[in-house]
Amino acid sequence: MAQWMGKLGFELEIMADYIFGEVKKAERVFADETTLPTLAPGSGSTKTAYLWAYAQDDRTFGRSGPPMVAYRFEDSRSGECAVRHLNGYRGILQVDGYAAYNKLARSDRGNEGVTLAGCWSHCRRKFYELHVAGSSEVATATVEQMARLWQVEKTVRRQSPTLALPRASRPPRRSSQISSTPGSGPCGGSPANQSSLRRSAMPSRAVPSSNAS
Question: Nearest CA to 51 among 20, 16, 30, 77?
């Protein structure tokens, strides 16, 4: 069965490369990586590998293009993986703050056209922890301000820029409660876990298996 999967992966590699190429044409790309337990041939155990996910979805900007996610399997979580995957990409790359992605913004890596964007949901976590502990009025005020920004985003989501701008200028409603979970932030959840997006789970090479020989 492992050999069948390896053969299937080989035959579909051209499709995976095509989808990744389409993702890299997007103005905005969301990137994330997650652990993937993988059989280590000959050891009788598993090792930790990584599945890198790259997503593009412009429906929140009022566009009709199909959302896509491209995956790449790697043995490492090194930033060199992202540099190799996104070589030549020019646009906005939204990430969770993992330092490995910083290499993508270096001009000597061939990615001088990359602009890194952070994730409000990840940024909010530390402020919320301080708010819950009651140790920082500044943190509470920050979380409240983020909630108002998310309310604006909820109002303009899926609207074209022409329609979104007038609506965004309206004062957002104030909420007396602070939720333990953020609103629909820019990330919209980790690309590796966005079940609503079209999936293309094609590794750059077959996942190693002890039964693949």
Answer: 77
Query: Closest Cα to residue 184, out of 144, 160, 155, 141?
Result: 155
192: three-class secondary structure by DSSP = helix
pLDDT tens digit string along 28-80? 999 999 999 998 888 888 999 999 999 999 887 777 788 999 999 999 999 99
pTM of structure: 0.69
Q: What are the pLDDT digits (tens) for 126-165?
A: 999 999 999 899 999 999 999 998 888 888 877 776 666 6
Angstrom distance (rounded) from CA 138 to CA 127: 9
Amino acid at 154: K
Residue type, 85: H
Q: How far apart are CA 213 and CA 210, in angstroms?
A: 7
| Domain extent listing, the chain | 2-119, 120-168
Residue 28 CB neighbour total at 10 angstroms? 17
